[in-house]
Specification:
The protein is an alpha/beta fold. It folds into 2 domains: 2-159, Ribonuclease H-like superfamily/Ribonuclease H (Nucleotidyltransferase, domain 5); 163-195, no CATH class. It contains 7 helices and 5 strands; from the N terminus they run αββαβααββααα. A 5-stranded mixed sheet has the order 3-2-1-4-5, sandwiched between helices. The protein starts with a helix and ends in a 20-residue tail after the last helix.
Length: 205
């Protein structure tokens, strides 16, 4: 299935301006940071497994991460932690993570391709918001792969500090196992308190 879908990915939105694709990972999670990536690709960039990260198996995402980092013109990843998410809200945090990733690019893009339907303009660089863009443009798909793999790796590290939530499996998403652990143990310092995910009678720790 991935092979058929990935062949539909377009490498560029246009060819006159230098593009960067942007995407985020972890926006809907109960715990942990939101990650974002920005990727600038060379002409002819192709990998048969490249697609929206949600449509790619974990082992293939890790292979793609190596390929993207080795073959992209420029790429960068950034994060905004759960405390700042609680302070500014998850939507603004997602945009900030994208801005931070763009800040880290070694070359300034001339056009931004943003996955989704909203974005806060970045340094007067024109942008296009593309709904489900990670399944349409290679640079956005590549950004989704980097954001997802870096975030998953980060959540696996946090798992060792609070193993009761099984973040090595659910990566902070609100799975049944995660929700049951919250009901039993309450929230920890990495949970997003603004998401109102714990019953009022459960104490925090």
């Amino acid at each position: 299935m991935n092979l058929n879908i990935c062949c539909m990915l377009q490498t560029f939105y246009q060819t006159e301006l230098l593009e960067a694709g942007c995407d985020e990972a972890g926006r809907g999670c109960y715990a942990g940071p939101v990650f974002a990536a920005a990727v600038m690709l060379p002409p002819g960039f192709h990998h048969p497994l490249l697609n929206d990260s949600k449509q790619v198996k974990e082992k293939d995402r890790n292979e793609l991460r190596r390929f993207i980092e080795q073959n992209a013109l420029h790429c960068a990843v950034a994060m905004v932690d759960n405390n700042e998410i609680d302070t500014i809200n998850i939507l603004k945090a997602s945009f900030k993570a994208m801005h931070l990733a763009l800040d880290k690019l070694k070359k300034k893009p001339q056009l931004l391709l943003i996955d989704g339907n909203r974005f806060v303009p970045y340094k007067k660089i024109p942008h296009h918001c593309i709904v489900q863009g990670d399944g349409k443009y290679a640079s956005i798909a590549a950004a989704s792969i980097l954001a997802k793999t870096y975030r998953d790796e980060y959540m696996q590290q946090l798992h060792h500090e609070f193993p009761v939530y099984e973040w090595q499996q659910n990566k902070g998403y609100g799975t049944l196992t995660h929700r049951k652990a919250i009901a039993a143990f309450g929230l920890c310092k990495y949970h997003r308190k603004s998401f109102n995910i714990v019953p009022k009678q459960i104490a925090l720790f």
